[in-house]
Amino acid sequence: MELKEKLQILADSAKYDASCSSSGSTRINNSGLGNAHLSGICHSFASDGRCISLLKILLTNICIFDCKYCLNRRSNNVKRAIFTPEEICEITINFYRRNYIEGLFLSSGIIKSPDYTMELLIKTISLLRYKYHFGGYIHAKAIPGASTFLLKKLGSLVDRLSANVELPTENGLKLLAPNKNMNKVSEIMGFVRDNRSKSYVPAGQSTQMVIGATNETDLDIMSKSEGMYNSYKLKRVFYSAYIPVNKDNLLPTLKMPPLKRENRLYQADWLLRYYGFKVDDLLDKQNPNFNILVDPKASWSLRHLDEFPKEVTTCSYNDLLKVPGIGVTSAKRIIKSRRYFKLTFNDLKKMGVVLKRANYFITCNGKYNLNQELFSKNFIEANLVSLDSANKLVSNVEQLRLF
Question: Is residue 339 part of a domain?
Answer without folding.
Answer: yes
